[in-house]
Amino acid sequence: MKAAIYTKYGSPEIIQIVETKKPAPQFNEILVNIEASSVTRADTMMRQGIPRLGRLFLGVFKPKNTALGTGFSGIVEAVGSDVKKFSIGDAVFGEKLFSNGSNADYLCISEDMIIELKPDAISHTQAAPVCDGFLTSYNFLKDIANIQQEHHILINGASGSLGSAAVQLAKLMGAKVTGICNAKNIDFVKTLGADDVIDYTKVNLNELSCKYDVIYDAVGKLSYQTAKKIISSDGIFMTPVLSIQILWQMLWNSKQVKFAATGMKKTKDLKQLFKDLVYFFGQNKLHTTIDRTYGLSDIAKAHQYLETGRKVGNVVIINL
Ligand SMILES: NC(=O)c1ccc[n+]([C@@H]2O[C@H](COP(=O)([O-])OP(=O)(O)OC[C@H]3O[C@@H](n4cnc5c(N)ncnc54)[C@H](OP(=O)(O)O)[C@@H]3O)[C@@H](O)[C@H]2O)c1
């Protein structure tokens, strides 16, 4: 089978497509014939080995795990002898977390990991990136911010994968949503359900008079210094993007400043969040936005596009 790998840290060109042995499922594993897989900002950062501190975990001089890709959607081709929840022919989707390997023709995954039956309401292409934007943002909105109906949330980077998911989720949870994006994406963010949209190229947030209960900086471009001027006294500022500044501010103001790496959450808790999302997608209450798709052989081009920082929603690899 074909798989995308990286054997050293570097630019998108270092990605290789190699012929490798098709995996065989262990007792509790499922073999998935992958139809579509995600390419995410986290993948591009792993490939570059940034932030450098992350190399303590990924491998100091070169990646310990050479496989690429986390989110996937496909068809169950074989199951291990102990598998109870899935059968051959099931359409499934999920997330490989740090074990990677979804940018390939096949993968094996334990049935106890992040994998569920794919609702008919979404295609494999729409399902593959759900665990990037939706699962991450749902963790922030539900488990970290505990979003309630009376909350007003400001979402920065509302046009990205995490931001576009957060706008929909916050509306679903009953909150009032203001999204921040570029002028060209205002209509898109409105169609996601945002009550108000701010153009970050024209509005200076320091001059806003409004106070928000929650500020979710989905793209890590806001400073806490700016955010704290427009946050209510018991409000929170949260971001999925780690930086020295955020770590420092969390040290001094752990009640108001929050960061979390969703992949580090206990699998059983992530699984519960994912199950909620599967239900919402099945009910047509959430929609994945696909910006571009690529074939596996063009995955380096997909990484290059992600690195522009301009994608709207998600980028997906489709296996032909
Ligand atoms: N902690 C976790 O568990 C976790 C999990 C997944 C991802 N992440 C991180 O989350 C971040 C977001 O990823 P993503 O895929 O959603 O988005 P992304 O690809 O990083 O961002 C793309 C979007 O951000 C917008 N944007 C760029 N600069 C902006 C600014 N100054 N203000 C507002 N919007 C701006 C762009 O729109 P314009 O071109 O119109 O400006 C574009 O639509 C990444 O850094 C990723 O590594 C963290």
Features:
single chain, 320 residues, alpha/beta, Quinone Oxidoreductase, Chain A, domain 1, 2 domains, seven-stranded mixed β-sheet, six-stranded parallel β-sheet, 10 helices, 27% strand, binds NADP nicotinamide-adenine-dinucleotide phosphate
Biggest sheet character: 7 strands, mixed
Q: CATH homologous superfamily of the largest domain - what is it? A: Medium-chain alcohol dehydrogenases, catalytic domain
The DSSP helix count reads 10
Radius of gyration over all CA atoms, rounded:
19 Å
- Average pLDDT, all residues: 97
* CATH fold annotation of the largest domain: Quinone Oxidoreductase, Chain A, domain 1
Beta-strand portion reads 25-35%
- Structural class call reads alpha/beta
Could you say what the CATH architecture of the largest domain is?
Answer: Alpha-Beta Complex
* Low-pLDDT residue intervals, each spanning 5 or more residues: none
Order of helices and strands: EEEHHEEEEHHEHEHEEHEHEHEHE
Report the strand count: 15
List ligands, each type once: NADP nicotinamide-adenine-dinucleotide phosphate
Number of domains: 2
CATH hierarchy class name of the largest domain: Alpha Beta
In which range does the helix fraction lie?
A: 25-40%
**Molecular shape:** globular
* End-to-end C-alpha gap: 13 Å
